[in-house]
Amino acid sequence: MKNYDYAIIGNCTSSALISSDCSIDWLCLPFFDSPSVFAKILDADKGGFFSIAAVNVKTVEQSYITHTPVLKTVFTTEDGIFELRDYMPRFLTSKQEYYCPPEIHRDIKLISGNPKLIVKFHPKPNYAASESEFILENNHVKITSQKGEYASFYLYSNLNYKSILTSEPVELKCDSFMLFSYHEKLDEIDTDRINIEYQKTKTYWLDWAYRTKVPSKYKELLLRSAITLKLLTYQRSGAVIASPTTSLPEIIGKDRNWDYRYCWIRDSSMIVDLYNRIGHTSSAQRYMNFVLNRRMLKHENISVMYGINGERLLTERILEHLSGYEGSKPVRIGNDAYKQVQNDIYGQLIEAIYTYLLVKHRDRVVTDEEIWTIVRDLANTVIKKWKEPDNGIWERRGQPRHYVHSKMMSWVAMDRSAKIARFIGKPNIAEKWLKIASEIKQDIIEKGWNEQRKSFVMFYGGSELDAANLLMLHYGFLENDDPKVVSTVKKTYEELTKSDFTFRYISNDEFGEVKNAFIICTFWMINALYLIGDEEKSRKMLDNVLRCINKFKLFSEDVEIDTCRLTGNFPQGYSHLALIQTILLLETNYNWSNVSGLQDFLQ
Protein backbone atom coordinates (compact mmCIF):
# COMPACT_ATOMS: atom_id res chain seq x y z
CA MET A 1 0.00 0.00 0.00
CA LYS A 2 1.63 3.22 -1.16
CA ASN A 3 1.36 6.78 0.12
CA TYR A 4 -0.35 5.77 3.36
CA ASP A 5 -3.75 5.01 1.89
CA TYR A 6 -5.31 5.50 5.30
CA ALA A 7 -7.96 7.66 6.94
CA ILE A 8 -7.89 8.54 10.63
CA ILE A 9 -10.91 8.33 12.91
CA GLY A 10 -10.87 9.26 16.58
CA ASN A 11 -12.52 10.98 19.51
CA CYS A 12 -9.69 12.59 21.53
CA THR A 13 -9.31 9.44 23.63
CA SER A 14 -7.63 7.30 20.99
CA SER A 15 -7.68 6.95 17.22
CA ALA A 16 -7.50 4.36 14.45
CA LEU A 17 -6.15 4.14 10.92
CA ILE A 18 -8.50 2.61 8.38
CA SER A 19 -7.29 1.54 4.95
CA SER A 20 -9.04 2.09 1.63
CA ASP A 21 -10.15 -1.56 1.78
CA CYS A 22 -11.92 -0.90 5.12
CA SER A 23 -9.38 -2.59 7.36
CA ILE A 24 -8.53 -1.16 10.78
CA ASP A 25 -4.76 -1.61 10.64
CA TRP A 26 -3.79 0.46 13.68
CA LEU A 27 -5.63 0.93 16.97
CA CYS A 28 -4.43 1.36 20.53
CA LEU A 29 -6.95 1.02 23.36
CA PRO A 30 -7.96 2.45 25.66
CA PHE A 31 -5.70 5.46 24.99
CA PHE A 32 -3.33 6.84 22.36
CA ASP A 33 -0.27 5.42 24.11
CA SER A 34 -1.76 2.06 25.10
CA PRO A 35 -0.50 -1.18 23.54
CA SER A 36 -2.01 -1.80 20.13
CA VAL A 37 -4.79 -4.28 19.53
CA PHE A 38 -4.57 -3.96 15.73
CA ALA A 39 -1.09 -3.34 14.29
CA LYS A 40 -1.09 -4.66 10.75
CA ILE A 41 0.60 -1.44 9.65
CA LEU A 42 3.69 -2.56 11.62
CA ASP A 43 3.58 -6.23 10.66
CA ALA A 44 1.31 -7.42 7.86
CA ASP A 45 1.39 -11.02 9.08
CA LYS A 46 1.38 -10.75 12.88
CA GLY A 47 -0.04 -7.34 13.64
CA GLY A 48 -3.78 -8.00 13.64
CA PHE A 49 -6.59 -6.19 11.81
CA PHE A 50 -10.37 -5.80 11.54
CA SER A 51 -11.67 -5.61 7.97
CA ILE A 52 -15.08 -5.47 6.30
CA ALA A 53 -15.47 -6.47 2.66
CA ALA A 54 -18.36 -7.32 0.34
CA VAL A 55 -19.17 -10.26 -1.91
CA ASN A 56 -19.55 -9.71 -5.68
CA VAL A 57 -18.35 -6.11 -5.48
CA LYS A 58 -18.95 -3.78 -8.41
CA THR A 59 -17.72 -0.47 -6.94
CA VAL A 60 -16.43 0.91 -3.64
CA GLU A 61 -16.60 4.65 -2.89
CA GLN A 62 -14.93 6.02 0.23
CA SER A 63 -14.74 9.50 1.75
CA TYR A 64 -15.16 11.43 4.96
CA ILE A 65 -18.60 12.79 5.71
CA THR A 66 -18.07 16.50 5.12
CA HIS A 67 -16.46 18.39 8.03
CA THR A 68 -16.29 15.32 10.27
CA PRO A 69 -13.85 12.47 10.97
CA VAL A 70 -16.59 9.95 10.16
CA LEU A 71 -15.43 7.70 7.31
CA LYS A 72 -18.14 6.60 4.86
CA THR A 73 -17.68 3.67 2.46
CA VAL A 74 -20.40 2.74 -0.03
CA PHE A 75 -20.27 -0.82 -1.40
CA THR A 76 -22.22 -1.48 -4.59
CA THR A 77 -22.51 -5.20 -5.27
CA GLU A 78 -24.40 -7.44 -7.64
CA ASP A 79 -26.80 -8.25 -4.79
CA GLY A 80 -27.39 -4.77 -3.37
CA ILE A 81 -25.84 -1.67 -1.82
CA PHE A 82 -24.79 -0.87 1.74
CA GLU A 83 -22.96 1.96 3.46
CA LEU A 84 -20.34 1.51 6.18
CA ARG A 85 -19.75 4.33 8.66
CA ASP A 86 -16.60 4.15 10.79
CA TYR A 87 -16.16 6.54 13.71
CA MET A 88 -15.42 6.87 17.41
CA PRO A 89 -18.24 8.54 19.38
CA ARG A 90 -17.71 12.08 20.67
CA PHE A 91 -20.40 14.47 21.86
CA LEU A 92 -21.60 16.51 24.82
CA THR A 93 -24.04 14.90 27.25
CA SER A 94 -26.98 16.64 28.88
CA LYS A 95 -24.62 17.41 31.79
CA GLN A 96 -22.25 19.19 29.37
CA GLU A 97 -19.64 16.48 29.80
CA TYR A 98 -17.79 14.95 26.86
CA TYR A 99 -18.69 11.39 26.00
CA CYS A 100 -15.71 9.93 24.16
CA PRO A 101 -15.33 6.27 25.15
CA PRO A 102 -12.47 4.01 23.96
CA GLU A 103 -14.49 2.26 21.27
CA ILE A 104 -15.09 2.10 17.53
CA HIS A 105 -18.45 1.94 15.82
CA ARG A 106 -18.75 0.26 12.44
CA ASP A 107 -22.33 1.04 11.44
CA ILE A 108 -23.87 -0.61 8.38
CA LYS A 109 -26.81 1.02 6.61
CA LEU A 110 -28.65 -1.17 4.12
CA ILE A 111 -29.52 0.91 1.07
CA SER A 112 -30.98 -1.67 -1.31
CA GLY A 113 -31.19 -5.42 -1.99
CA ASN A 114 -29.56 -8.06 0.18
CA PRO A 115 -25.81 -7.65 -0.24
CA LYS A 116 -23.39 -9.99 1.52
CA LEU A 117 -20.40 -8.88 3.58
CA ILE A 118 -17.38 -10.66 5.01
CA VAL A 119 -15.80 -9.68 8.31
CA LYS A 120 -12.22 -10.56 9.17
CA PHE A 121 -11.73 -9.92 12.86
CA HIS A 122 -8.21 -10.63 14.12
CA PRO A 123 -7.33 -8.67 17.28
CA LYS A 124 -3.75 -9.12 18.54
CA PRO A 125 -3.35 -7.48 21.98
CA ASN A 126 -0.14 -6.15 23.50
CA TYR A 127 1.48 -5.00 20.25
CA ALA A 128 0.69 -8.41 18.70
CA ALA A 129 2.71 -10.22 21.36
CA SER A 130 -0.38 -12.26 22.18
CA GLU A 131 -3.04 -14.24 20.37
CA SER A 132 -6.65 -13.67 21.41
CA GLU A 133 -9.14 -15.92 23.14
CA PHE A 134 -12.78 -15.43 22.14
CA ILE A 135 -15.52 -16.03 24.70
CA LEU A 136 -19.11 -15.89 23.45
CA GLU A 137 -21.30 -14.46 26.19
CA ASN A 138 -24.99 -13.48 26.28
CA ASN A 139 -24.94 -10.37 24.09
CA HIS A 140 -21.32 -9.96 23.05
CA VAL A 141 -17.97 -11.57 22.40
CA LYS A 142 -15.28 -11.03 25.02
CA ILE A 143 -11.73 -10.97 23.67
CA THR A 144 -8.81 -11.57 26.03
CA SER A 145 -5.07 -11.84 25.63
CA GLN A 146 -3.64 -15.34 25.98
CA LYS A 147 -0.25 -14.32 27.33
CA GLY A 148 1.63 -11.32 28.60
CA GLU A 149 -0.14 -8.40 30.22
CA TYR A 150 -3.86 -9.10 30.62
CA ALA A 151 -6.06 -7.24 28.17
CA SER A 152 -9.76 -7.58 27.42
CA PHE A 153 -12.06 -6.12 24.80
CA TYR A 154 -15.71 -6.51 23.81
CA LEU A 155 -17.46 -6.88 20.46
CA TYR A 156 -21.18 -6.10 20.14
CA SER A 157 -23.23 -6.69 17.00
CA ASN A 158 -26.65 -7.64 15.70
CA LEU A 159 -24.96 -9.89 13.15
CA ASN A 160 -24.27 -13.56 13.76
CA TYR A 161 -21.17 -13.82 15.99
CA LYS A 162 -20.17 -17.19 14.60
CA SER A 163 -20.11 -15.75 11.07
CA ILE A 164 -18.02 -12.81 12.24
CA LEU A 165 -15.43 -15.01 13.98
CA THR A 166 -15.20 -17.51 11.09
CA SER A 167 -15.36 -14.91 8.29
CA GLU A 168 -18.38 -16.55 6.70
CA PRO A 169 -20.43 -14.36 4.33
CA VAL A 170 -23.33 -12.58 6.06
CA GLU A 171 -26.43 -11.54 4.14
CA LEU A 172 -27.68 -8.10 5.16
CA LYS A 173 -31.41 -7.90 5.72
CA CYS A 174 -31.52 -4.72 7.82
CA ASP A 175 -29.29 -1.99 9.23
CA SER A 176 -26.52 -3.54 11.31
CA PHE A 177 -23.57 -2.58 13.49
CA MET A 178 -20.36 -3.79 15.07
CA LEU A 179 -19.11 -2.00 18.16
CA PHE A 180 -15.59 -2.79 19.41
CA SER A 181 -14.99 -1.50 22.93
CA TYR A 182 -12.36 -1.57 25.64
CA HIS A 183 -15.13 -1.54 28.25
CA GLU A 184 -18.04 -3.89 28.73
CA LYS A 185 -21.23 -1.95 27.91
CA LEU A 186 -23.71 -1.71 30.78
CA ASP A 187 -26.72 -0.68 28.68
CA GLU A 188 -28.30 -2.61 25.85
CA ILE A 189 -26.74 -1.93 22.46
CA ASP A 190 -29.17 -1.84 19.54
CA THR A 191 -29.54 -0.01 16.23
CA ASP A 192 -31.54 2.83 17.82
CA ARG A 193 -28.79 3.63 20.30
CA ILE A 194 -26.14 3.26 17.62
CA ASN A 195 -27.98 5.69 15.33
CA ILE A 196 -28.41 8.26 18.11
CA GLU A 197 -24.68 8.18 18.91
CA TYR A 198 -23.86 8.51 15.23
CA GLN A 199 -26.11 11.54 14.82
CA LYS A 200 -24.75 13.19 17.97
CA THR A 201 -21.16 12.58 16.88
CA LYS A 202 -21.77 13.99 13.43
CA THR A 203 -23.50 17.05 14.90
CA TYR A 204 -20.62 17.66 17.31
CA TRP A 205 -18.06 17.74 14.51
CA LEU A 206 -20.22 19.86 12.18
CA ASP A 207 -20.59 22.43 14.95
CA TRP A 208 -16.85 22.30 15.70
CA ALA A 209 -16.01 22.89 12.03
CA TYR A 210 -18.55 25.72 11.80
CA ARG A 211 -16.74 27.54 14.63
CA THR A 212 -13.35 27.20 12.93
CA LYS A 213 -12.09 30.45 11.38
CA VAL A 214 -10.36 29.75 8.07
CA PRO A 215 -10.32 31.57 4.73
CA SER A 216 -12.74 30.45 2.02
CA LYS A 217 -10.05 29.42 -0.44
CA TYR A 218 -8.78 25.94 0.43
CA LYS A 219 -11.55 25.79 3.06
CA GLU A 220 -12.17 22.04 2.83
CA LEU A 221 -8.45 21.27 2.98
CA LEU A 222 -7.96 23.58 5.97
CA LEU A 223 -10.90 22.14 7.88
CA ARG A 224 -9.61 18.61 7.31
CA SER A 225 -6.25 19.68 8.75
CA ALA A 226 -7.91 21.43 11.70
CA ILE A 227 -10.05 18.35 12.46
CA THR A 228 -6.95 16.17 12.27
CA LEU A 229 -5.17 18.42 14.78
CA LYS A 230 -8.18 18.21 17.07
CA LEU A 231 -8.04 14.40 16.89
CA LEU A 232 -4.50 14.57 18.31
CA THR A 233 -5.73 16.27 21.50
CA TYR A 234 -6.17 14.05 24.55
CA GLN A 235 -9.46 14.82 26.27
CA ARG A 236 -8.50 13.85 29.81
CA SER A 237 -5.46 16.11 30.18
CA GLY A 238 -5.35 18.58 27.30
CA ALA A 239 -2.06 17.13 26.00
CA VAL A 240 -1.52 17.28 22.22
CA ILE A 241 0.36 14.35 20.69
CA ALA A 242 2.65 14.65 17.68
CA SER A 243 1.09 11.69 15.84
CA PRO A 244 -1.05 8.66 16.76
CA THR A 245 1.51 6.14 15.44
CA THR A 246 4.90 4.72 16.28
CA SER A 247 7.79 3.58 14.10
CA LEU A 248 6.44 4.45 10.67
CA PRO A 249 9.85 5.02 9.06
CA GLU A 250 11.24 8.33 7.86
CA ILE A 251 13.07 6.28 5.21
CA ILE A 252 11.52 3.00 4.05
CA GLY A 253 13.69 0.06 5.09
CA LYS A 254 15.86 2.12 7.47
CA ASP A 255 15.98 2.67 11.21
CA ARG A 256 14.78 6.28 11.69
CA ASN A 257 11.66 4.96 13.39
CA TRP A 258 10.26 6.76 16.44
CA ASP A 259 7.28 6.71 18.77
CA TYR A 260 5.34 9.96 18.35
CA ARG A 261 2.38 9.25 20.64
CA TYR A 262 3.55 11.84 23.15
CA CYS A 263 3.22 15.53 23.83
CA TRP A 264 6.23 17.57 22.68
CA ILE A 265 6.09 21.02 24.27
CA ARG A 266 7.37 22.58 21.05
CA ASP A 267 4.94 20.93 18.63
CA SER A 268 1.91 21.13 20.88
CA SER A 269 2.55 24.77 21.79
CA MET A 270 2.64 25.66 18.11
CA ILE A 271 -0.60 23.76 17.53
CA VAL A 272 -2.28 25.42 20.51
CA ASP A 273 -1.05 28.82 19.32
CA LEU A 274 -2.88 28.00 16.09
CA TYR A 275 -6.04 26.97 18.00
CA ASN A 276 -6.17 30.48 19.44
CA ARG A 277 -5.82 32.00 16.00
CA ILE A 278 -8.58 29.94 14.35
CA GLY A 279 -11.18 30.39 17.06
CA HIS A 280 -10.79 27.39 19.39
CA THR A 281 -9.80 28.99 22.66
CA SER A 282 -11.29 26.18 24.77
CA SER A 283 -8.72 23.72 23.36
CA ALA A 284 -6.00 26.26 24.12
CA GLN A 285 -7.31 26.66 27.67
CA ARG A 286 -7.13 22.91 28.27
CA TYR A 287 -3.54 22.79 27.03
CA MET A 288 -2.65 25.72 29.27
CA ASN A 289 -4.06 23.71 32.16
CA PHE A 290 -1.89 20.77 31.11
CA VAL A 291 1.20 22.99 31.21
CA LEU A 292 0.21 24.54 34.52
CA ASN A 293 -0.23 21.10 36.03
CA ARG A 294 3.31 20.23 34.94
CA ARG A 295 4.63 23.36 36.70
CA MET A 296 2.88 23.21 40.06
CA LEU A 297 6.18 23.87 41.81
CA LYS A 298 8.29 26.83 40.71
CA HIS A 299 11.54 24.88 40.74
CA GLU A 300 10.30 22.20 38.31
CA ASN A 301 11.66 22.56 34.79
CA ILE A 302 9.52 22.02 31.73
CA SER A 303 10.51 18.77 30.01
CA VAL A 304 11.04 18.46 26.27
CA MET A 305 8.08 16.07 26.10
CA TYR A 306 5.53 14.31 28.24
CA GLY A 307 3.26 11.31 28.18
CA ILE A 308 -0.40 12.09 27.62
CA ASN A 309 -1.02 12.22 31.38
CA GLY A 310 2.13 14.20 32.10
CA GLU A 311 4.54 11.30 32.51
CA ARG A 312 8.19 12.37 32.38
CA LEU A 313 9.79 8.92 32.05
CA LEU A 314 9.29 7.63 28.47
CA THR A 315 11.95 4.94 28.27
CA GLU A 316 12.57 3.72 24.74
CA ARG A 317 12.54 0.01 23.95
CA ILE A 318 12.39 -2.20 20.85
CA LEU A 319 9.66 -4.71 19.96
CA GLU A 320 11.82 -7.38 18.36
CA HIS A 321 8.90 -9.61 17.31
CA LEU A 322 7.44 -7.06 14.86
CA SER A 323 8.90 -6.82 11.34
CA GLY A 324 8.10 -3.12 10.95
CA TYR A 325 6.36 -1.16 8.22
CA GLU A 326 7.44 -2.82 4.96
CA GLY A 327 10.32 -4.43 6.85
CA SER A 328 11.55 -1.19 8.42
CA LYS A 329 12.99 -2.23 11.76
CA PRO A 330 13.23 -1.57 14.61
CA VAL A 331 9.75 -0.95 15.99
CA ARG A 332 10.21 1.33 18.98
CA ILE A 333 7.90 2.30 21.82
CA GLY A 334 8.85 5.08 24.18
CA ASN A 335 11.18 7.87 23.12
CA ASP A 336 14.56 8.67 24.64
CA ALA A 337 14.36 12.25 23.39
CA TYR A 338 12.74 13.00 26.76
CA LYS A 339 16.27 12.99 28.22
CA GLN A 340 17.50 15.74 25.92
CA VAL A 341 18.04 19.46 26.46
CA GLN A 342 16.19 21.49 23.83
CA ASN A 343 16.34 25.16 24.70
CA ASP A 344 14.00 26.27 21.90
CA ILE A 345 10.92 24.93 23.72
CA TYR A 346 10.69 27.92 26.09
CA GLY A 347 10.22 30.40 23.28
CA GLN A 348 7.47 28.40 21.64
CA LEU A 349 5.61 27.89 24.91
CA ILE A 350 5.80 31.57 25.85
CA GLU A 351 4.66 32.51 22.32
CA ALA A 352 1.58 30.28 22.80
CA ILE A 353 0.90 31.85 26.21
CA TYR A 354 1.20 35.35 24.73
CA THR A 355 -1.31 34.59 21.99
CA TYR A 356 -3.60 32.89 24.50
CA LEU A 357 -3.62 35.92 26.80
CA LEU A 358 -4.39 38.35 23.97
CA VAL A 359 -7.21 36.22 22.62
CA LYS A 360 -8.64 35.39 26.03
CA HIS A 361 -8.68 38.93 27.36
CA ARG A 362 -8.86 40.88 24.08
CA ASP A 363 -8.62 44.58 25.00
CA ARG A 364 -9.03 44.06 28.74
CA VAL A 365 -5.96 43.79 30.93
CA VAL A 366 -6.70 40.87 33.24
CA THR A 367 -4.00 39.56 35.51
CA ASP A 368 -3.81 35.77 35.49
CA GLU A 369 -1.53 35.22 38.45
CA GLU A 370 -0.83 31.55 37.80
CA ILE A 371 0.14 32.13 34.18
CA TRP A 372 2.24 35.15 35.13
CA THR A 373 4.15 32.95 37.59
CA ILE A 374 4.79 30.48 34.79
CA VAL A 375 5.96 33.21 32.38
CA ARG A 376 8.25 34.78 34.96
CA ASP A 377 9.76 31.40 35.85
CA LEU A 378 10.22 30.40 32.21
CA ALA A 379 11.87 33.73 31.42
CA ASN A 380 14.27 33.33 34.34
CA THR A 381 15.08 29.81 33.10
CA VAL A 382 15.91 31.20 29.65
CA ILE A 383 18.13 33.86 31.21
CA LYS A 384 20.11 31.07 32.89
CA LYS A 385 20.18 28.67 29.94
CA TRP A 386 20.36 30.57 26.67
CA LYS A 387 24.15 30.60 26.58
CA GLU A 388 24.33 26.81 27.01
CA PRO A 389 24.48 24.23 24.17
CA ASP A 390 21.58 21.84 23.54
CA ASN A 391 20.36 19.09 21.19
CA GLY A 392 18.30 21.44 19.03
CA ILE A 393 14.93 21.23 17.33
CA TRP A 394 15.91 18.15 15.28
CA GLU A 395 16.84 16.19 18.41
CA ARG A 396 20.31 15.31 17.20
CA ARG A 397 21.63 12.50 19.40
CA GLY A 398 25.25 13.57 19.09
CA GLN A 399 27.22 16.26 20.86
CA PRO A 400 25.20 19.25 22.18
CA ARG A 401 25.92 22.44 20.23
CA HIS A 402 25.03 26.11 20.19
CA TYR A 403 22.19 25.78 17.68
CA VAL A 404 21.18 29.06 16.09
CA HIS A 405 17.48 28.17 16.09
CA SER A 406 17.57 27.45 19.83
CA LYS A 407 19.22 30.82 20.43
CA MET A 408 16.64 32.53 18.24
CA MET A 409 13.80 30.91 20.19
CA SER A 410 15.45 32.14 23.39
CA TRP A 411 15.12 35.61 21.87
CA VAL A 412 11.44 34.87 21.17
CA ALA A 413 11.02 33.81 24.79
CA MET A 414 12.43 37.07 26.16
CA ASP A 415 10.73 39.29 23.57
CA ARG A 416 7.28 37.76 24.18
CA SER A 417 7.81 37.64 27.95
CA ALA A 418 8.54 41.36 27.85
CA LYS A 419 5.35 41.97 25.87
CA ILE A 420 3.35 39.92 28.38
CA ALA A 421 4.93 41.92 31.23
CA ARG A 422 3.94 45.17 29.54
CA PHE A 423 0.46 43.76 28.82
CA ILE A 424 -0.21 43.10 32.51
CA GLY A 425 1.34 46.36 33.73
CA LYS A 426 4.94 45.44 34.59
CA PRO A 427 6.96 47.98 32.52
CA ASN A 428 10.16 47.73 34.56
CA ILE A 429 10.35 43.96 34.12
CA ALA A 430 9.50 44.38 30.42
CA GLU A 431 12.41 46.76 29.95
CA LYS A 432 14.80 44.39 31.73
CA TRP A 433 13.74 41.44 29.59
CA LEU A 434 13.92 43.43 26.35
CA LYS A 435 17.57 44.23 27.13
CA ILE A 436 18.28 40.50 27.46
CA ALA A 437 16.41 39.84 24.21
CA SER A 438 18.62 42.44 22.53
CA GLU A 439 21.73 40.76 23.96
CA ILE A 440 20.62 37.38 22.57
CA LYS A 441 19.88 38.87 19.15
CA GLN A 442 23.29 40.49 18.95
CA ASP A 443 24.96 37.21 19.98
CA ILE A 444 23.15 35.36 17.17
CA ILE A 445 24.07 37.96 14.56
CA GLU A 446 27.72 37.87 15.59
CA LYS A 447 28.15 34.10 16.07
CA GLY A 448 25.37 32.48 14.03
CA TRP A 449 26.07 34.34 10.79
CA ASN A 450 28.68 32.81 8.50
CA GLU A 451 30.07 35.53 6.29
CA GLN A 452 31.68 33.08 3.88
CA ARG A 453 28.37 31.22 3.42
CA LYS A 454 26.33 34.45 3.44
CA SER A 455 23.81 32.73 5.69
CA PHE A 456 22.86 31.96 9.23
CA VAL A 457 24.06 28.41 9.85
CA MET A 458 22.96 25.49 12.01
CA PHE A 459 25.25 26.12 14.97
CA TYR A 460 27.90 28.58 16.08
CA GLY A 461 31.17 28.04 14.27
CA GLY A 462 29.63 25.69 11.71
CA SER A 463 28.88 25.99 8.01
CA GLU A 464 25.91 23.63 7.62
CA LEU A 465 22.54 25.17 6.79
CA ASP A 466 19.38 24.50 8.79
CA ALA A 467 15.80 24.90 7.56
CA ALA A 468 14.75 25.89 11.08
CA ASN A 469 16.46 29.24 10.54
CA LEU A 470 13.69 30.09 8.06
CA LEU A 471 11.52 30.69 11.13
CA MET A 472 13.39 33.93 11.77
CA LEU A 473 10.81 35.53 9.48
CA HIS A 474 7.89 33.75 11.11
CA TYR A 475 8.79 35.13 14.54
CA GLY A 476 9.91 38.57 13.36
CA PHE A 477 13.51 38.13 14.51
CA LEU A 478 14.66 40.47 11.73
CA GLU A 479 12.73 42.48 9.16
CA ASN A 480 11.66 40.62 6.03
CA ASP A 481 13.92 42.79 3.84
CA ASP A 482 16.97 42.49 6.10
CA PRO A 483 19.87 41.46 3.83
CA LYS A 484 20.99 38.68 6.17
CA VAL A 485 17.50 37.15 6.26
CA VAL A 486 16.99 37.42 2.51
CA SER A 487 20.39 35.86 1.86
CA THR A 488 19.69 33.02 4.33
CA VAL A 489 16.40 32.20 2.62
CA LYS A 490 17.97 32.18 -0.83
CA LYS A 491 20.95 30.12 0.28
CA THR A 492 18.69 27.63 2.08
CA TYR A 493 16.50 27.32 -1.00
CA GLU A 494 19.59 26.72 -3.13
CA GLU A 495 21.09 24.00 -0.91
CA LEU A 496 18.26 22.36 1.03
CA THR A 497 15.43 22.49 -1.53
CA LYS A 498 15.33 19.72 -4.12
CA SER A 499 12.49 19.16 -6.59
CA ASP A 500 10.59 21.88 -4.67
CA PHE A 501 10.83 19.99 -1.35
CA THR A 502 12.94 21.24 1.55
CA PHE A 503 15.15 19.11 3.80
CA ARG A 504 15.88 19.85 7.46
CA TYR A 505 19.58 19.58 6.65
CA ILE A 506 21.53 17.49 4.16
CA SER A 507 24.70 16.31 5.89
CA ASN A 508 24.91 12.82 7.36
CA ASP A 509 23.90 12.58 11.00
CA GLU A 510 24.08 9.89 13.71
CA PHE A 511 21.84 7.61 11.62
CA GLY A 512 23.56 8.10 8.28
CA GLU A 513 22.34 9.74 5.09
CA VAL A 514 19.28 12.00 5.10
CA LYS A 515 17.20 10.98 2.07
CA ASN A 516 13.70 12.39 2.48
CA ALA A 517 12.45 15.94 2.77
CA PHE A 518 10.51 17.26 5.76
CA ILE A 519 7.00 18.44 4.94
CA ILE A 520 6.97 21.14 7.61
CA CYS A 521 10.29 22.51 6.33
CA THR A 522 8.81 22.70 2.85
CA PHE A 523 5.98 24.87 4.21
CA TRP A 524 8.51 27.00 6.10
CA MET A 525 10.33 27.59 2.82
CA ILE A 526 7.08 28.49 1.06
CA ASN A 527 6.37 31.05 3.79
CA ALA A 528 9.88 32.46 3.76
CA LEU A 529 9.89 32.93 -0.02
CA TYR A 530 6.55 34.69 0.17
CA LEU A 531 7.72 37.00 2.95
CA ILE A 532 10.84 38.10 1.06
CA GLY A 533 8.73 38.85 -2.00
CA ASP A 534 9.13 35.76 -4.20
CA GLU A 535 5.43 34.86 -4.37
CA GLU A 536 5.66 33.05 -7.70
CA LYS A 537 8.21 30.54 -6.44
CA SER A 538 6.31 30.23 -3.16
CA ARG A 539 3.02 29.29 -4.83
CA LYS A 540 4.77 26.88 -7.16
CA MET A 541 6.18 25.03 -4.15
CA LEU A 542 2.75 25.00 -2.50
CA ASP A 543 1.14 23.41 -5.54
CA ASN A 544 3.92 20.83 -5.59
CA VAL A 545 3.66 19.74 -1.95
CA LEU A 546 -0.14 19.54 -2.13
CA ARG A 547 0.29 16.88 -4.85
CA CYS A 548 1.64 14.57 -2.15
CA ILE A 549 -1.30 14.69 0.24
CA ASN A 550 -3.17 11.39 0.35
CA LYS A 551 -6.72 10.93 -0.91
CA PHE A 552 -8.11 11.67 2.56
CA LYS A 553 -6.21 15.01 2.63
CA LEU A 554 -3.72 13.78 5.23
CA PHE A 555 0.02 14.37 5.52
CA SER A 556 2.77 12.42 7.25
CA GLU A 557 6.07 13.88 8.45
CA ASP A 558 8.35 13.20 5.45
CA VAL A 559 8.15 12.75 1.70
CA GLU A 560 10.25 10.98 -0.93
CA ILE A 561 11.09 13.77 -3.33
CA ASP A 562 11.23 11.60 -6.47
CA THR A 563 8.01 9.66 -5.90
CA CYS A 564 5.97 11.99 -3.65
CA ARG A 565 5.46 9.02 -1.36
CA LEU A 566 4.63 9.94 2.23
CA THR A 567 6.87 8.51 4.95
CA GLY A 568 7.26 8.89 8.71
CA ASN A 569 4.56 8.84 11.37
CA PHE A 570 1.05 9.52 10.14
CA PRO A 571 -0.90 11.71 10.24
CA GLN A 572 1.58 14.27 11.54
CA GLY A 573 0.32 17.24 13.53
CA TYR A 574 3.35 19.38 12.67
CA SER A 575 2.67 19.03 8.93
CA HIS A 576 -1.01 19.96 9.21
CA LEU A 577 -0.18 22.88 11.47
CA ALA A 578 2.24 24.19 8.85
CA LEU A 579 -0.28 23.72 6.05
CA ILE A 580 -2.80 25.94 7.84
CA GLN A 581 -0.13 28.53 8.67
CA THR A 582 0.93 28.70 5.04
CA ILE A 583 -2.58 29.10 3.64
CA LEU A 584 -3.35 31.82 6.19
CA LEU A 585 -0.22 33.68 5.11
CA LEU A 586 -0.66 33.34 1.37
CA GLU A 587 -4.42 33.87 1.22
CA THR A 588 -4.94 36.52 3.93
CA ASN A 589 -1.41 37.99 4.17
CA TYR A 590 -1.67 37.16 7.87
CA ASN A 591 1.43 38.34 9.72
CA TRP A 592 2.08 35.61 12.27
CA SER A 593 4.50 37.65 14.38
CA ASN A 594 2.07 40.58 14.63
CA VAL A 595 -0.35 39.19 17.20
CA SER A 596 -2.15 42.54 17.45
CA GLY A 597 -3.62 41.83 14.02
CA LEU A 598 -5.20 38.67 15.38
CA GLN A 599 -8.32 40.47 16.59
CA ASP A 600 -9.24 41.59 13.07
CA PHE A 601 -8.83 38.06 11.72
CA LEU A 602 -11.08 36.56 14.41
CA GLN A 603 -13.92 39.01 13.81
Task: Name the features.
19% strand; 16 helices; globular; 7-stranded antiparallel sheet; Glycosyltransferase; 603 residues; 8-stranded antiparallel sheet; Beta-galactosidase, Chain A, domain 5; alpha+beta; single chain
Structural overview:
There is one protein chain. With 603 residues, the chain is α+β, with helices and mostly antiparallel strands. It folds into two domains: 6-188, Beta-galactosidase, Chain A, domain 5 (Distorted Sandwich), CATH 2.70.98; 210-602, Alpha/alpha barrel (Glycosyltransferase). The protein is built from 16 helices and 28 strands. Strands 6-7-8-11-17-15-14-13 form an eight-stranded antiparallel β-sheet, covered by helices on one side. Strands 1, 2, 3, 4, 5, 12 and 16 form a seven-stranded antiparallel β-sheet that branches. It is globular, with a radius of gyration of 25 Å.
